[in-house]
Specification:
With 858 residues, the protein is α/β, with parallel strands linked by helices. It has three domains: 340 residues, Glycoside hydrolase, family 3, N-terminal domain (TIM Barrel); 227 residues, Glycoside hydrolase family 3 C-terminal domain (Rossmann fold, 3-Layer(aba) Sandwich), CATH 3.40.50.1700; 126 residues, Immunoglobulin-like (Sandwich). It contains 18 helices and 31 strands. Strand 16, helix 15 and strand 17 form a beta-alpha-beta unit. Helix 2 packs across helix 11, helix 5 runs parallel beside helix 7 and helix 13 crosses helix 17. The protein is globular, with a radius of gyration of 27 Å. Bound molecules: 2-acetamido-2-deoxy-beta-D-glucopyranose (NAG) (11 copies). One 2-acetamido-2-deoxy-beta-D-glucopyranose (NAG) binds next to helix 13. Belongs to the glycosyl hydrolase 3 family. It holds the Pfam family Glyco_hydro_3_C. This is beta-glucosidase. Its EC number is 3.2.1.21. InterPro entries: Cellulose_deg_GH3, Fn3-like, GH, Glyco_hydro_3_AS, Glyco_hydro_3_C, Glyco_hydro_3_C_sf, Glyco_hydro_3_N, Glyco_hydro_3_N_sf.
């Protein structure tokens, strides 16, 4: 590999006439994994393992056995000859779906709202330990797609909010947490899966700069963090399905970002045998056509892929690369032997398809009855995970308004109002997939859910606390009986009203909301309920369980609404986390990970609810990089509450902003990758005889189930004459991309160019945590007013001050140049802003231009 040192003098945005990379053939061939930073040992082990495999054994590891064919939501075939069981893949991003004795963690959006790397990491570790404990190999999370282009996006809550930097940091820490427990993480859904309407057919068009600076950004962080797998999404990009897309998978993910793990399809997102294989898919999920049986293979891969390899349509190096990537990911997280979990990971110990002890080993075919569920308790000994969930729950509550009513100190009486405060008498899991609002809501709906082991409701937690304090407790449940709500609230010193909006995945609709929210108002008569309570009680406290923003202006300005708290989707400790903040045991540190406004239109990007041609829904992300706060600032729209906003029970002062160029070890010139890869390697010999690729004599098949063998002795596997080497099948050495070269992209993008320091002091009377946020103005019309490029959580005793340090990397101050296909520091003057939100700026400074460069103004 040759490094070319490039001078840093670059023209600004010479973008206009660039070729459209989405329609070039740059995506061939599919890059073969080659190890590198953090992967070398894993690759050595994987190559040794794969070299022992026959073609059908290899194919077995690339293909799911079919929907409900085994006990996890996804399972691959196994290698019985070597005692290697197939992979078990299980939802989801906030805990284990479809089992018992697991925890229900706060949703991704809550984890992001803490702005705490420590808590993001701890949440990942605890989730990883739970998946490990059930024998699961791959946790299907975390989520960076949807990013949150539009606030109504049904699955936004599964991820970390619309800012790519906050999402990227959250992805990296979550992934490292999960994988430290010997479980493979999966960064999903790759890419541009920004809405639920038409998600299986929508074609998204966007410009290359927006792709890099916004939607791809957090996936780059995931890859740099060593993520083991990536899930391609259901939608199309520029007319091509994500799981069949040589540009997004081969070119961007595997080549430019240097991803060394494997790409799996979302469930049913694979469309063709050959297209998916050559365009970079490595594992087909769930393997079949989502149920039923379509002979002879019941699959696009399985035996169908074996046939294609034998006929020369899929080169051996490509199928070898699939399996090496899968096994390297397995060894990378030390799944064969993990630190304190030194025992070989146990058998899968639960069944997604029954809550009972006994059931079918293979549900889709009702085959082999036996013990399927060990009811293994994975919640961490001594309530360890519950304590963490409560801490994250409390530290993810954003205090949006407080006229002084909070924190509470032994009020004489307290009224709890609203259905969303209540326990469900049928239990917390009464609604399948969590798709209802009949009691308190603590997670969204769909596949990103887990069963609650229990759910502490706000009413129960407040009642317990009231009893301890000698506070009289009143409680009313109906959202529609406003007279009763008023009567109850009128009597109380304070009234807590819990209200809801809900969102989820589009295989279920709730109240006519097909995953995405139809509007940004509260559900279930919530606004009228708040108004009724506030009309009689001057200490009205509003608690929001919503997946994102709702219209709040009327309550923000209402004199009797004394406090507003966003609690998001906090998980099983919901009520306990809430009282920690209400009563001041936790001084709120959360800051809003999205912008609050009054209507969807104000966000400047729109969700496609109804396509002119429903068979061919198309959408252009014409707003470019201007989503969420970037849009509000440019359009001059004052939000109700801005991105990054949240109150504390104390106050902070900012002082003494300093910028140091580089640091003692870094800050050199940008390196442009040059040179080329090695040719594609192959492992083991390919036995082309039909007989070597058939099921063994007497093998007893179950149906439906996906197997790797040829369908029968009469299959012709003669090398096809018309298969010549094309760009897609060419295994010769390939040139490196200038922006590539290592996981996460060119390593010199991560050089520290500036170190920024400032002092923060707690000037109030109680201890608290401030979240200083660093925004960088990259300059020029093409760039937003500022983009988040640093944050910290700083806990301070009253009167205490600390120095905070932010490191700005080359990537942090660069833009994507679509012509040179590389990151460049444009010559526009760059200003940094340090503040307590995206608009509450306390300090600013101009960054010195890098050596050899002069800033231009305007
Ligand atoms: C490679 O991907 C591009 C963009 O998606 C597409 O236009 C092109 O047809 C693909 N090439 C082939 C041979 O499928
Ligand atoms: C493929 O996996 C299935 C399911 O685990 C197993 O029954 C079969 O024997 C495997 N085939 C080979 C060739 O190892
Ligand atoms: C095998 O793959 C082809 C597409 O490449 C598909 O048309 C066919 O349905 C598949 N066969 C089976 C039985 O799944
Ligand atoms: C499997 O058994 C269940 C009852 O236990 C039955 O409802 C279902 O139809 C059966 N499915 C198959 C594929 O035989
Ligand atoms: C899983 O559960 C089964 C059935 O209860 C039990 O025999 C086995 O020991 C359990 N395995 C692990 C790893 O807990
Ligand atoms: C609140 O009131 C409802 C309806 O009367 C009741 O079922 C529930 O138990 C009460 N909640 C608490 C925490 O007392
Ligand atoms: C309000 O308080 C009065 C006097 O303490 C009591 O008689 C009445 O039942 C209370 N009403 C409600 C709805 O709790
Ligand atoms: C918004 O949607 C919710 C949920 O469907 C519904 O309850 C509410 O009435 C809607 N708001 C408006 C203003 O239509
Ligand atoms: C606020 O509450 C008081 C009762 O304490 C009530 O008289 C007043 O009308 C309320 N204000 C508004 C704007 O509803
Ligand atoms: C310089 O930056 C690198 C990369 O972030 C870091 O590892 C190193 O500790 C820094 N050195 C100093 C003196 O801050
Ligand atoms: C930077 O801060 C100074 C001093 O508070 C202020 O006068 C100036 O307007 C700020 N600059 C920008 C670009 O906000």
């Amino acid at each position: 590999m040759i490094y070319l040192i490039k001078t840093l003098v670059c023209a600004a945005a010479a973008a206009a006439a660039a070729p459209n990379p989405f329609t070039s053939s740059a995506g061939y061939p599919s890059p073969w994994g080659n190890g590198g930073e953090g992967w070398d040992e894993a690759y050595a082990k994987a190559r040794e393992f794969v070299a022992k495999l026959t073609l059908v054994e290899k194919v077995n590891l690339t293909t799911g056995t079919g929907w409900e064919a085994d006990r996890c939501v996804g399972a691959t075939g196994s290698v019985p000859r070597l005692g290697f069981r197939g992979f078990c893949l299980q939802d989801g991003p906030l805990g284990i779906r479809y089992t018992d004795h697991n925890s229900a963690f706060p949703a991704g959006i809550n984890a992001a709202a803490t702005w705490s790397r420590r808590l993001l990491r701890a949440r990942g570790e605890a989730m990883g330990a739970e998946f490990h404990g059930k024998g699961i190999d791959v946790q299907l999370g975390p989520v960076a797609g949807p990013l949150g282009r539009v606030p109504q996006g049904g699955r936004n809550w599964e991820g970390f909010g619309p800012d790519p930097y906050l999402t990227g940091v959250s992805m990296a820490h979550t992934i490292q947490g999960i994988q430290s427990r010997g479980v493979l993480a999966c960064a999903k859904h790759y890419i541009l899966n920004e809405q639920e309407h038409y998600r299986n057919s929508i074609s998204v068009r966007l410009d290359d700069r927006t792709m890099h600076e916004l939607y791809l950004w957090p996936f780059a962080d995931a890859v740099r963090a060593g993520v083991a797998s990536v899930m391609c999404s259901y939608n199309k990009i520029e007319g091509v399905y994500a799981c069949e897309n040589n540009y997004t998978t081969n070119f961007l993910l595997k080549n430019e970002l240097g991803f060394q793990g494997f790409v799996m399809s979302d469930w049913g997102a694979q469309k063709t045998t050959l297209g998916s294989a050559l365009n970079g898919l490595d594992m087909a999920m769930p393997g079949d056509f989502m149920g039923g049986n379509r002979p002879p293979y019941n699959a696009l891969w399985g035996g169908n892929l074996t046939e294609h390899v034998l006929r020369g349509q899929v080169p051996q190096w490509r199928v070898d690369d699939m399996v090496v990537r899968i096994m390297a990911a397995y060894f990378k997280v030390r799944r064969d032997s993990v630190g304190k979990y030194a025992e070989r990971p146990g058998e899968v110990n639960f069944s997604s398809w029954t809550t009972k002890r006994e059931g079918w080993m293979h549900e889709s075919s009702n085959s082999t009855w036996g013990v399927v569920n060990g009811f293994v308790d994975v919640q961490g000994g001594g309530g360890e995970h519950a304590a963490l969930i409560r801490e994250i729950g409390a530290k993810s509550i954003v205090l949006l308004k407080n006229t002084g009513v909070l924190p509470l100190t032994k009020p004489a009486s307290i009224a709890v109002v609203g259905r969303d405060a209540q326990d469900d008498p049928r239990g917390p899991n009464a609604c399948k997939e969590r798709a209802c609002i009949e009691a308190t809501v603590a997670m969204g709906w769909g596949s990103g859910t887990a069963e609650f082991p229990y759910l502490i409701s706000p009413a129960t937690a407040i009642k317990t606390r009231a009893a301890a304090d000698g506070t009289t407790f009143f409680n009313t449940t109906s959202n529609w009986d406003l007279e009763t709500a008023k009567a109850v609230a009128r009597n109380a010193s304070v009234a807590v009203v819990c209200v809801v909006a809900h969102a989820g995945e589009n295989f279920v609709s709730v109240g006519g909301n097909a995953g995405d929210r139809n509007n940004l108002t509260l559900w279930d008569n919530g606004d009228a309920l708040i108004r009724a309570v506030a009309s009689v009680n001057p200490n009205t406290i509003v608690v929001l369980h919503t997946p994102g923003p709702v219209a709040l202006a009327q309550h923000k300005s209402h004199p009797n609404v004394s406090a507003i708290l966003w609690a998001g989707y906090p998980g099983q400790e919901s009520g306990n986390a809430l009282i920690d903040v209400l009563y001041g045991a936790v001084n709120p540190q959360a800051r809003s990970p999205f912008t609050w406004a009054e209507s969807p239109e104000q966000y400047g990007a729109s969700l496609l609810f109804s396509a002119p041609d429903p068979r061919n829904p198309e959408q252009t992300f014409s707003e470019g990089v201007f989503i969420d706060y970037r849009h509000f600032q440019r359009a001059g729209i004052a939000p109700t509450y801005e991105f990054g906003f949240g109150l504390s029970y104390t106050t902070f002062e900012y002082r003494n902003l300093r910028v140091v160029v580089g640091n003692s070890t870094q800050g050199g010139a940008q390196v442009v990758m040059q040179g080329s890869t090695k040719p594609a390697p192959t492992y083991g010999t390919l036995d082309r005889r039909v007989g070597a690729n058939l099921a063994p004599e007497g093998f007893s098949r179950i149906t439906p189930y996906v197997y790797p063998w040829l369908s029968g002795p009469n299959v012709s596997v003669a090398l096809l004459q018309n298969v010549s080497t094309t760009a897609a099948t060419d295994g010769s050495a390939q040139p490196l991309l200038p922006a590539g070269g290592a996981p996460g992209g060119n390593p010199s993008l991560y050089d520290v160019l500036y170190t920024v320091r400032a002092e923060i002091e707690n000037t109030g009377a109680v201890a608290g945590t401030e979240i200083p946020q660093l925004y960088v103005q990259l300059g020029g019309q093409e760039n937003p007013w500022g983009v988040l490029r640093g944050f910290d959580d700083v806990t301070l005793a009253p009167g205490e001050s600390k120095t905070v340090t932010f490191e700005l990397t080359r990537r942090d101050v660069s833009n994507w140049n679509v012509s040179s296909q590389n990151w460049e520091i444009w010559t526009k003057e760059k200003v940094i802003f340090l503040g307590s939100s995206s608009t509450r700026i306390r300090l600013n400074a101009t960054l010195p231009a890098p050596p050899g460069m002069r800033w231009s103004h305007g």
